[in-house]
């Protein structure tokens, strides 16, 4: 989900939507944490996740005493209304040291009161909605955590209490997944016992991972509705009414808030866009994409209405408790972190429910660039082990696509027994993955029977089209389409899907697009986010092998001046050899 944050930080849009939060924001620059981690395909794995020794051995200054100390000395006005915290210069070395414990600016967090105020970031129209809450079922808020900092955990709890109508709140359940920090023991029990909403801490005896910890919390819950949060969130006004009302209206809905950003460096509350939905990429990593034009059209009347989403981010959602268990809760053989969000999204959609995002519910989440805790067994084994389970149980023929292009998953495939989950799928008479792709996510860019999937090769140079490795402001690959030597093993960066309606797409919803006319001196054909616009439509003529850009009636060509390293161009179609392209299918399963 770390990449998801980077995607959200589109500066252009932030300026437009978020002027008030940004103007006083002077980010504190910390150590150069790995921003992203890129795997063999040049595709993001768990972006930013710390791949080294998670025990902090690289920071010998982090003694047990520091790890267990509970600094907590808030200043009354710090971080007020979601404003950023600015640490005085003389504290900066201490600040850096503390940063490593949780991979966020702990000093900043500890200076902010646990009950800080936040702005109402909703659209005006939301204030008139979801006010009729008498008689709605109550919810149990479930927060699982492993070695969370005191101030972020309890700020989450206070934000729930302060900004939820108490008639909707049954209780708060904190599930401690075998934390080792002292202050999360008796000190926490004592603290929560005096809160105005019944709050309990349940503890596991050994580390069971967030998935099983959530199942445990759900079993213990007394509320009719389960509302899950990560342990470093802050809820804003109206967040719960918007979720609970929708679940109460239809018990098969899984409702997510819009997830705003709490800065890991300054703890500023940054409103994010409302017009993104959740899905995933070819590696089965969660991604945000802009919602489709059709969906936007439907919503023009009232853009604050909830909209359905192919997948959820995972941590923040409300769902009926009976529906949660009827549908098979979670896959309890998933370990530690990852994959459960797609598993649940597929299961909910394919087995008769729906996943939606409510623009009137805003909850902030603290996004980190790397993960602070250990992954027993190793990050790759844990994450891909979980994803293997998702693919085997829910994805039908598309699992073969996943395994074919993800060797780390293929290696783990035989180690994952999934019989009971397949039986669950049968018992619930769930629909196929094809139905899911066709119906829930028709804008998807996965290969299908009626699409071309493979390489696009220039005949005269014998080279293949490749998507650029440079990133645009949405952290998506963006730039000129390049021609490079064709890889002998099919690599995903050279794979394209050509849809029947003429869009040429690749992973992460990136499409072949026309050049910008004002690019000087010679405009290049680009790849950028698929928009569904005519300017991204192409047609391929099998006879003369021309790849024609439909709206301009020009053909994909090599630059006449030989500046091929700068990318490809469009020229009037003349059937010359440089304009000949073959679409070479690659079996995708
Ligand atoms: O072993 C563990 N035991 C735990 O109890 C590991 C983690 N946890 C707790 C942890 O303390 C935290 O409260 O589980 C919660 C989630 O872990 P994070 O905060 O490290 O996860 P994340 O925010 O990086 O990741 C997202 O994807 C996860 C995949 O398993 C979960 O679904 C997280 O809930 C999810 N977070 C969100 O959806 C928040 C918004 C992200 C976006 C966009
Ligand atoms: Mn989180």
From TrEMBL:
Keywords: Disulfide bond, Glycosyltransferase, Golgi apparatus, Lectin, Manganese, Membrane, Metal-binding, Signal-anchor, Transferase, Transmembrane, Transmembrane helix. Its cofactor is Mn(2+). GO terms for biological process: protein O-linked glycosylation. Pathway: Protein modification; protein glycosylation. GO terms for molecular function: carbohydrate binding; metal ion binding; polypeptide N-acetylgalactosaminyltransferase activity. It comes from the Eukaryota. Its EC number is 2.4.1.-. It is a single-pass type II membrane protein. The chain crosses the membrane at residues 1-12. It is found in: Golgi apparatus membrane. It is an enzyme of class 2 (transferase). Residues 453-584 form the Ricin B lectin domain. The keyword Membrane applies. InterPro entries: GalNAc-T, Glyco_trans_2-like, Nucleotide-diphossugar_trans, Ricin_B-like_lectins, Ricin_B_lectin. One of its GO terms (cellular component) is Golgi membrane. Its main location: Golgi. Belongs to the glycosyltransferase 2 family. GalNAc-T subfamily. This is Polypeptide N-acetylgalactosaminyltransferase. The lineage of its organism: Eukaryota, Metazoa, Ecdysozoa, Arthropoda, Hexapoda.
């Amino acid at each position: 989900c770390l990449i998801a944050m980077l995607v959200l930080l589109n500066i252009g849009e932030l300026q437009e939507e978020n002027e008030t939060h940004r103007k006083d924001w002077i980010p504190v620059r910390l150590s150069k944490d790995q921003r992203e981690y890129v795997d063999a395909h040049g595709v993001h794995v768990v972006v930013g996740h710390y791949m080294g020794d998670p025990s902090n051995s690289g920071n010998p200054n982090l003694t047990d005493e520091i790890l267990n100390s509970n600094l907590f000395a808030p200043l009354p006005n710090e971080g007020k209304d979601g404003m950023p915290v600015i640490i005085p210069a003389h504290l900066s070395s201490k600040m850096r040291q503390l940063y490593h414990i949780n991979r966020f600016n702990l000093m900043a967090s500890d200076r902010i009161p646990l009950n800080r105020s936040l702005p109402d970031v909703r659209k005006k129209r939301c204030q008139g909605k979801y006010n009729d809450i008498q008689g709605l079922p109550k919810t149990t808020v479930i927060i699982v955590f492993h070695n969370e900092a005191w101030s972020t955990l309890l700020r989450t709890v206070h934000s729930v209490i302060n900004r939820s109508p108490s008639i909707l709140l049954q209780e708060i359940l904190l599930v401690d997944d075998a934390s080792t920090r002292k202050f999360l023991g008796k000190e926490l029990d004592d603290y929560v016992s005096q809160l105005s909403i019944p709050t309990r801490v349940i503890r596991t005896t050994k580390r069971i991972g967030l998935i099983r910890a959530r199942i445990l919390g759900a079993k213990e819950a007394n509320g009719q509705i389960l509302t899950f949060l990560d342990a470093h969130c802050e809820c804003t006004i109206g967040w719960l009414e918007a979720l609970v009302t929708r679940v109460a209206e239809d018990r098969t809905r899984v409702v997510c808030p819009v997830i705003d950003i709490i800065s890991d460096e300054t703890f500023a509350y940054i409103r994010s866009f409302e017009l993104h939905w959740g899905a995933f990429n070819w590696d089965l990593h969660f991604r945000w994409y802009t919602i489709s034009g059709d969906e936007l059209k439907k919503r023009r009347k009232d853009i604050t209405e909830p909209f359905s989403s192919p997948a959820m981010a995972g941590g923040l959602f409300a769902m009926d408790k009976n529906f949660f268990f009827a549908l098979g809760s979670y896959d309890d053989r998933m370990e530690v972190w990852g994959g459960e969000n797609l598993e649940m999204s597929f299961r909910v959609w394919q087995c008769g429910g729906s996943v939606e995002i409510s623009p009137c519910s805003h909850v902030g989440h603290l996004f980190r660039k790397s993960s602070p805790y250990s992954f027993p067994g190793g990050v790759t084994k844990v994450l891909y082990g979980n994803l293997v389970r998702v693919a085997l149980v829910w994805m039908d023929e598309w699992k073969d696509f996943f395994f074919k292009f993800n060797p780390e998953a293929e290696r783990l495939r035989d180690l994952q027994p999934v019989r009971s989950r397949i039986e669950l799928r049968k018992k619930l008479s769930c629909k196929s993955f094809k139905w899911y792709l066709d119906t829930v996510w028709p804008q998807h860019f996965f290969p299908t029977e009626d699409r071309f999937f493979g390489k696009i090769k220039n005949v005269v140079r014998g080279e293949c089209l490749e998507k650029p490795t440079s990133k645009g402001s949405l952290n998506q690959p963006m730039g000129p389409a390049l021609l490079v030597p064709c890889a002998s093993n099919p690599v995903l960066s050279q794979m394209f899907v050509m849809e029947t309606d003429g869009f040429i797409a690749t992973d992460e919803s990136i499409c072949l697009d026309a050049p910008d006319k004002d690019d000087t001196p010679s405009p290049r054909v680009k790849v950028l986010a698929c928009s569904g616009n005519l300017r991204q439509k192409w047609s391929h003529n099998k006879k003369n092998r021309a790849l024609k850009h439909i709206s301009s009636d020009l053909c994909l060509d090599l630059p006449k001046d030989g500046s091929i390293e700068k990318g490809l161009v469009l020229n009037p179609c003349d059937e010359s050899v440089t304009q000949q392209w073959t679409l070479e299918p690659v079996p995708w399963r």
